[in-house]
Amino acid sequence: NIVRNTYFELLTLLIVIFNTLILILDEPSLNEPFTKQVIDSVNFVVLWWYIFEVLIRILAQGFTGGSGAFLRDTFNVFDFILVILISVIMILEYQGVELYGDATRMK
After folding, report:
1. Nearest-CA neighbor of 15 among 39, 50, 40, 41?
2. pLDDT tens for residues 28-45?
């Protein structure tokens, strides 16, 4: 089962740590366009990893049925909600919608 694979869990943990470091660098006062573009690109790639991780977990565990189903785990529900919200925010930002403040810091 890939979901419980040590390397999969380690890779996911490293991506979370890396993403945390990127979020520390991404502050509202950042005016350097190249740095901002790199941070945005990294955030986009990390979001795709999170989407992939959620999909793999859903495929491996099932979405709602059974005792080990994806939505039966509180952390999975939290991850699922965050991935949906962040995806919507990034889509809106890509469409040019101005959001109040820096909504992507929610990650």
Report:
1. 50
2. 667 788 888 888 889 899
Dihedrals φ, ψ of 95, to 5°?
A: -75, -5
pLDDT bracket for residue 6 (50, 70, 90):
very high
pTM of the model: 0.79
Q: Give which of 86, 94, 99, 21 is closest to 54, Cα–Cα.
A: 86
Encode 48-57: b = buried (16+ Cβ within 10 Å), e = exposed.
eebeebbeeb
Identify the DSSP state of 28.
Answer: T
Structural contact between residues 15 and 46, judged by C-beta atoms closer than 8 angstroms:
yes
Amino acid occupying residue 13: L
